[in-house]
Structure to design on (349 residues):
């Protein structure tokens, strides 16, 4: 099912104002947008790996990485909901090309850090821990610029909210929560699995899997950049 | 002072790797653009542009898939995919290709291509 079909089937009342049912439909639309987007699987796997690696390094920090990434998506989409009239500029090919380049470089940075970070001294790791959460937030923020603009445009068009900033903001926020939910879930599952394992024996393996996943995501976006060039 | 030097050294491999990859990608992007040779005057006479509505594209990666697939069809000149307007604008050689083939190629990717209309 495409998002267009989902909104045609369930979104008929969205243009008639606020309702809990309507917000539920928008939340589901966010999940559907994640399900049909080809970027979700590689980035979701990388998120699960990164959350697992973070959990292996410091107990109960994995879910925070996933939450920071999802928060980046939610806040970005909420802001975009306010700027609904200008979303078109973010859905052009030239913007998409440089967005894909930025994602490729950011993902590679994550992969390099996943491989090389654990070799840093404890004092250096302490200094990097805070940027880890900020980095996950920024990664989610930038990720949603290229993956969520088109579905959000479609949603705002269907719900006829482009002239109503308050309704646009609420719908975009709810859509963002749905869009970020699968990543939060992936991160929580990744860190829970790590939490159940014996950290000492699995730690290096989880870090390598996390680095490989991010490296794969980097190649994926590099290919998108080249295809759009 | 020594701590900041040490920190700068620890960042260096990451910065160098990222810079190298960024430059490599930009170079590949520029060269892949120059690959397509401009059409001759005979080919130009048969060129036509159509706009094909495309349903189901949700992100830049979808747009890239559509663009790459359509651009690889023999007879296609330029392809521009718009996520905002949810369509693909294709310039192609009418003596070598029917628009239906482009529609079939897009449908083959799992998206829903609509009826092509002549571009204004």
């Amino acid at each position: 099912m495409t998002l267009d079909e989902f909104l045609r089937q369930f979104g008929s009342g969205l243009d008639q104002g606020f309702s809990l049912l309507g917000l539920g439909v928008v939340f589901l639309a966010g999940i559907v947008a994640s399900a049909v987007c080809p970027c979700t699987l590689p980035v979701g796997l990388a998120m699960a790996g990164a959350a697992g690696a973070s959990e292996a390094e410091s107990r109960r920090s994995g879910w925070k990485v996933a939450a920071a990434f999802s928060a980046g998506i939610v806040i970005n989409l909420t802001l975009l909901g306010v700027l609904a009239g200008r979303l078109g500029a973010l859905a052009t090919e030239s913007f998409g090309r440089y967005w894909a380049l930025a994602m490729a470089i950011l993902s590679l940075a994550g992969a390099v850090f996943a491989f090389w970070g654990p070799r840093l001294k404890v004092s250096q790791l302490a200094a990097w821990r805070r940027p880890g959460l900020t980095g996950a937030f920024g990664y989610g923020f930038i990720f949603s610029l290229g993956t969520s603009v088109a579905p959000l445009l479609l949603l705002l068009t269907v719900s006829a909210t482009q002239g109503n900033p308050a309704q646009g903001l609420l719908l975009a926020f709810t859509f963002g929560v749905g869009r970020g939910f699968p990543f939060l879930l992936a991160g929580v599952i990744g860190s829970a699995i790590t939490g159940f394992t014996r950290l000492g024996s699995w730690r290096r393996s989880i870090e390598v899997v996390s680095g490989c996943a991010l490296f794969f995501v980097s190649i994926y976006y590099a290919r998108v950049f080249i295809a759009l060039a | 002072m020594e701590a900041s030097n040490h920190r700068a050294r620890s960042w260096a491999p990451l910065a160098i790797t990222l810079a190298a990859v960024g430059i490599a990608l930009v170079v590949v992007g520029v060269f892949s653009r120059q690959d397509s040779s401009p059409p001759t005057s005979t080919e130009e006479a048969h060129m036509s542009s159509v706009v094909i509505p495309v349903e189901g594209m949700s992100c830049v990666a979808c747009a890239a898939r559509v663009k790459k697939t359509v651009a690889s069809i023999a007879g296609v000149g330029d392809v521009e995919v718009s996520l905002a307007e949810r369509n693909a604008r294709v310039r192609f050689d009418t003596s070598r290709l029917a628009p239906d083939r482009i529609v079939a190629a897009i449908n083959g990717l799992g998206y829903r291509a609509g009826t092509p209309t002549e571009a204004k």
User: Anything to note?
Assistant: The mean pLDDT of chain B is 80. DSSP finds four helices and five strands in chain B. Residues 30 and 114 of chain B are 32 Å apart (CA to CA).
